[in-house]
């Protein structure tokens, strides 16, 4: 797996099919998007995962039309991608870049 083993602090919330958080298929398993983190249940804790920069999810300037002006006051969730944060918009990663958004590729939302 491309991710190192980073732990998220313990919290009372249990992620699963009924928790209400967005589930994302990531490297063959489900992670749960929670407050800008991708949580992967692992025994008695959660691992922090990141969508890797890859041909499917590049880190390039590919301008996309976006109705949100900078994503500062919209309802789109933040999602970690490479060494930065993107926004999840209709199953795609949007990265704020100056006065536009870049398309950083698809993710599979379940």
Describe the fold and architecture.
With about 110 residues, this protein is mainly β. It has two domains: about 5-50, no CATH class; about 65-110, no CATH class. About 0% of the residues lie in helices and about 50% in strands. The protein has no helices and eleven strands. It has strands spanning about 5-10, 20-25, 30-35, 35-40, 45-50, 65, 75-80, 85-90, 90-95, 100-105, 110. The strands form two sheets. Strands 1-5-4-3-2-11 form a six-stranded antiparallel sheet, with no helix packed on it. A hairpin with a 2-residue loop joins strand 9 (about 90-95) and strand 10. The radius of gyration is 14 Å and the shape is globular. The protein starts with 5 loop residues before the first strand and ends with a strand. The model has no long low-confidence stretch (mean pLDDT about 85).
Quick rundown:
Helices cover about 0% and strands about 50% of the residues. The protein has about 110 residues and is an all-beta fold.
Tell me the layout of helices and strands.
Elements lengths: L5 E3 L13 E5 L2 E6 L2 E6 L2 E5 L13 E2 L12 E5 L2 E6 L2 E6 L2 E7 L1 E2 L1
Antiparallel strand pairs: 1-5, 2-3, 2-11, 3-4, 4-5, 6-10, 7-8, 8-9, 9-10
Which H/E pattern describes the elements? EEEEEEEEEEE
What integer is the average pLDDT? Answer: 86
Q: Give me the secondary-structure category.
A: mainly beta
Give me the number of helical elements: 0
* Overall morphology: globular
What's the number of structural domains?
Answer: 2
Q: Kindly estimate the percentage of residues that lie in beta strands according to DSSP.
A: over 45%
| Terminus-to-terminus distance | 21 Å
- Low-confidence region ranges: none
Radius of gyration: 14 Å
User: Describe the biggest sheet?
Assistant: 6 strands, antiparallel
Instruction: Identify the strand order in the major beta sheet.
Output: 1-5-4-3-2-11
Would you report the number of β strands?
11
Query: Which range best describes the helical content: under 10%, 10-25%, 25-40%, 40-55%, 55-70% or over 70%?
Result: under 10%
